[in-house]
Amino acid sequence: MESTSRLSGVIAFTQAARHGSFTAAARALGITPAAISKSVAALESSLGVRLMNRTTRSLSLTAEGAQFLAQANTALDTLDQAMENLTSSPANPSGLVRMSVPNVIGRRLIMPALPALLERHPALSVELDFDDRIVDFVQEGYDLVVRGGNTPDSSMISLPLGPLRLGLLASPGYLQKHGVPRHPLELSQHRLITRRFLGGRLSPWKFHQPDGEVYLHEPVGSALTLSDPDAMVQAALAGLGIAEAGIYLALPYLQSGELKLVLNDSHDPGPFQLMLQYPHRSFLAPRVRATADFLIDALRSNENLHADQEKLRKYAV
Questions:
Q1: Separation of alpha carbons 41 and 54, rounded Å
Q2: What 3-state DSSP class applies to 218?
Q3: Residue 258 backbone dihedrals phi, psi, to 5 degrees
Q4: Rounded CA gap, 87 and 69, in Å?
Q5: Among 128, 129, 210, 238, which is least packed, fewest CB within 10 Å?
Q6: Are strands 166-170 and 205-208 parallel, antiparallel or unpaired?
Q7: Residue 277 dihedral angles phi and psi, to the nearest 5°
Q8: What average pLDDT score do residues 46-68 get?
Q9: Measured between alpha carbons, how far is residue 148 from residues 86, 272, 293 in Å?
Q10: Which residue has the higher pLDDT, 4 or 287?
Q11: Domain span including residue 14
Q12: How far is Cα of residue 50 from the mean position of the Cα atoms in its chain?
């Protein structure tokens, strides 16, 4: 099998694996499904290995196919970057940058930064996928991923953008009606707004006691359970109870007096960080480097991410 045909087969195979069908891969490449099928079959014949199991309705990778896909994607990505670096200078980056961002973080922190990014680099285009799940960089073709929380992954470069500090929030109206809790044990007497994470997990609220002990309050029997952190802030604003939510979402309402921090001195703000991730590579394409550098600067200077415990005391009751 000639090298040109082999390369065509590799491209057809990776596109079919990414899109899940020969038809979708053909649409992406602008050729016919029969051409995709023929190229993949020729590649398998050349390698002497079956890469895909296919039926009339679906495709699935064999174990050998999954291993080959990871290496093929890396090779094609390196080739794309080498070609791109010849046509796109660091001073004038161009091309598409694909990013995966969590829903709320994407709306509240990433979207506000995009106008200035695109004004600075008008030849860039950005594609954002709003998704809270863990993504596969290689298979799904992302250049950058923004994630919140603890995201250890030795195969990724992870750059911290700022702390995702948590706080206990309540409206002045709620506190006037139900009183201000002075100790975590008093939370059982209050209406609590809790967050349900993917998989159904409810996260306990953590407190540090004067004697050094740690108290975990399990928010069972809550008045309201939500999966969206932005909705939790809105529920607290509506006076529905006390919510544990991100300061980056709540700071404007704390500054306006529409929300107050409860048990601020003992509540643990959490160890979570906002991270920018990309795969280990020997070099980054100019379009990706320019986008990453801009987001790092923009988010590391974002006031909503960097309000420390001392500054927040003035919003506490």
A1: 11
A2: coil
A3: -75, -20
A4: 27
A5: 210
A6: unpaired
A7: -125, 145
A8: 86
A9: 34, 7, 18
A10: 287
A11: 3-86
A12: 34
* 63 shares its domain with 199: no
Rg over alpha carbons for the chain, rounded to the nearest Å, is 25
Tell me if 34 sits within 8 A of 104, measured CB to CB: no
pLDDT of residue 165: 93
**192-195 and 242-246: which strand pairing?**
parallel
pLDDT, tens only, 258-273:
999 999 999 999 888 9
* Within a domain: 309: no
Q: How far apart are CA 168 and CA 164, in angstroms?
A: 13
- Collapsing DSSP to helix, strand or coil, 126 comes out as strand
Q: Per-residue pLDDT tens for 178-223?
A: 999 999 999 999 999 998 876 667 878 999 988 878 889 887 778 9
- Could you count the other beta carbons within 10 Å of the beta carbon of residue 216? 11
Same domain, 101 and 244: no
Same domain assignment for residues 11 and 79: yes
Per DSSP, the three-state class of 95 is: strand
Cβ burial, residue 57 (10 Å; 0-12/13-18/19+): exposed
Judge if 153 and 218 occupy the same domain: no
Residue 231 CA, distance from chain mean position: 18
Query: Within a domain: residue 173?
Result: yes
Task: Write out the H or E segment, with its range, that includes residue 17.
Answer: helix 3-19
DSSP 267: B
* Same-domain status, 179 and 192: yes
* Residue 279 CA, distance from chain mean position: 14
Helices then strands, counting H and E runs in the chain, come out as 12, 14
